[in-house]
């Protein structure tokens, strides 16, 4: 069998098992910390792109209603279809529209947004925001509600200021002929379907740099921003370079193409001289064609949300490919590495030793988690270690032979996991970052103090040298 045909079929089988497990064991709801009422939801939307050699029957575009009555049966029936077994799974990403004073401007993200008072629950917010931003209705016959991913507390100012609780939900499109996307101009600049195997490929991993001031609660401008850039440079984050199979652009916004053409751009290019080729050379001042096709990078919060999902799929290396945020100046980066070395090793041991296989989430368990949440340090941090939960309430028996534990307590071995999915109630990236930014703040202070001492020592040396020459 052709290798190109075998790989998607294998990935489809893994994806089916993962979605079945997530649908049977949803993650618990995280309550809001004191004095914080904001909640937001995002939609992880999956579709199966048909293979040209196994195109689906146009008369059987979606599952019938009876097969979808039971969620597990609906998933099994969907994945038994011939075109699905030979298809290529893809995820939907959006690039947010450019807006001033918006911390998420032009970011690659998942469809979603803030929960409104009229929303029945967090999932309803994800459904409503997806319809508004990309025009996909997630509660019709052409979609399956699969489950959710770990909810997490989103913070800013290096973990000091809580912003909101983020709730990710997974939806599976069950039709191959989805209607064209309708992008909201004020929210979405473009939408992109990205193959799942691109997100899993190690060679697509890269880095994204961001202005330090953009990571603070109040984004600085002017002199303060210049000072932060001069002292700390930029922050460096792990990222994934996306390769879309299909992209849709919102053509009615300036980002795509100027709505009013500049008269200087309407002139035809000059005829090149038969002797000189200078007219053919690129000039930095020339305005290029639209849209500005910059690399699509998935990083930050959205990558953290998807990390728990990607680790469930082979080659189970999402944790190894993820890196802690750092800075571009070498001295700051070195101090951060030195002070956080033991911290990172401890986090690795926690992830490998404190897995919670198939956690039971009854009312009593939720009450324990809620009380732990409010008793946690700083009023809003989550205690992931379950120290106060009885052992009988934490675990159920599960076959884990041959499976190593990776990100968020999920299997990370090269062999295919058996039994139920192992995971903890909080996201792995959230757990790994818990306490990290406290070290970052100390490292920044140490690095800046080191610079001051270095400058002082240099000035003292120059003063002594000048004094010596003056005497001689």
Number of DSSP strand runs = 13
Q: Beta-strand percentage? A: 15-25%
Q: Helical region count?
A: 13
Terminus-to-terminus distance:
87 Å
Could you give a short account of the major beta sheet?
9 strands, mixed
Helix content: 25-40%
User: What Rg, in angstroms, do the CA atoms define?
Assistant: 26 Å
**What's the overall geometry?**
elongated
Low-pLDDT segments, ≥5 res: 1-9, 285-289, 355-421
Order of helices and strands: HEHHEEEHEEEEHEHEEEHHEHHHHH
- Secondary-structure content class: alpha+beta
Mean pLDDT: 76
Task: Give structural notes.
The chain has 472 residues and is α+β, with helices and mostly antiparallel strands. It has 13 helices and 13 strands. The strands form 2 sheets. Strands 1, 2, 3, 4, 5, 6, 7, 8 and 11 form a 9-stranded mixed sheet that branches. The longest helix is centred in the last third of the chain and has 36 residues, at 436-471. The chain is elongated, with a radius of gyration of 26 Å. The relative contact order is 0.13. Residues 1-9, 285-289 and 355-421 have low confidence and may be disordered.
């Amino acid at each position: 069998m052709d290798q190109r045909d075998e790989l998607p079929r294998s990935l489809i089988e893994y994806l089916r098992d993962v979605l079945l497990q997530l649908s049977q064991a949803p993650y618990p709801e995280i309550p809001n910390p004191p004095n914080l009422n904001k909640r937001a939801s995002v939609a992880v939307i999956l579709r199966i792109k048909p293979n040209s050699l196994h195109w689906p029957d146009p008369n059987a575009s979606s599952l019938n209603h009876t097969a979808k009555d039971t969620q597990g049966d609906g998933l099994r029936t969907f994945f038994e279809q011939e075109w699905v077994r030979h298809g290529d799974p893809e995820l939907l990403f959006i690039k947010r529209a450019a807006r001033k004073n918006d911390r998420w401007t032009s970011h690659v993200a998942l469809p979603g947004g803030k929960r409104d008072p009229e929303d029945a629950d967090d999932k309803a917010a994800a459904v409503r925001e997806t319809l508004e931003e990309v025009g996909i209705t997630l509660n019709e016959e052409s979609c399956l509600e699969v489950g959710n991913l770990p909810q997490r507390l989103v913070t800013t100012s290096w973990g000091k200021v809580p912003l909101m609780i983020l709730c990710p939900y997974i939806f599976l499109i069950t039709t191959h002929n989805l209607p064209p996307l309708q992008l909201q101009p004020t929210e979405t600049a473009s939408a992109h379907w990205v193959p799942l195997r691109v997100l899993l490929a190690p060679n697509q991993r890269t880095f994204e740099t961001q202005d330090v001031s953009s990571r603070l609660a109040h984004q600085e401008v002017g002199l303060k921003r210049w000072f932060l850039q001069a002292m700390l440079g930029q922050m460096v984050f792990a990222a994934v370079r996306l390769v879309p199979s299909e992209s849709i652009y919102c053509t009615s916004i300036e980002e795509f193409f100027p709505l009013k053409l500049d008269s200087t751009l309407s002139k035809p290019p000059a005829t090149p001289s038969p002797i000189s080729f200078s007219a053919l050379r690129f000039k930095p001042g020339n305005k290029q064609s639209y849209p500005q096709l910059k690399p699509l990078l998935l990083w930050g919060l959205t990558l953290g949300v998807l990390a728990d999902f990607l680790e469930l799929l082979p080659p189970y290396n999402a944790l190894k490919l993820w890196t802690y945020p750092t800075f571009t100046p070498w001295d700051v980066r070195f101090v951060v590495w030195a002070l956080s070395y033991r911290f990172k090793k401890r986090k690795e041991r926690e992830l490998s030793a404190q897995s919670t296989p198939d956690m039971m989430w009854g009312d009593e368990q939720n009450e324990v988690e809620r009380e732990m949440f409010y008793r946690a340090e700083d009023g809003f941090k989550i205690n992931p270690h379950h120290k106060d939960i009885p052992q009988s309430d934490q675990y159920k028996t599960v076959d884990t032979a041959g499976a190593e534990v990776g990100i968020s307590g999920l299997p990370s071995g090269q062999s295919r996991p058996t039994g139920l999915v192992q995971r903890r109630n909080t996201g792995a990236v959230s757990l790994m970052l818990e306490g990290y930014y406290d070290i970052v703040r100390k490292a920044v202070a140490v690095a800046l103090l080191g610079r001051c001492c270095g400058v002082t020592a240099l000035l003292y040396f120059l003063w002594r040298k000048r004094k010596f020459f003056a005497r001689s």
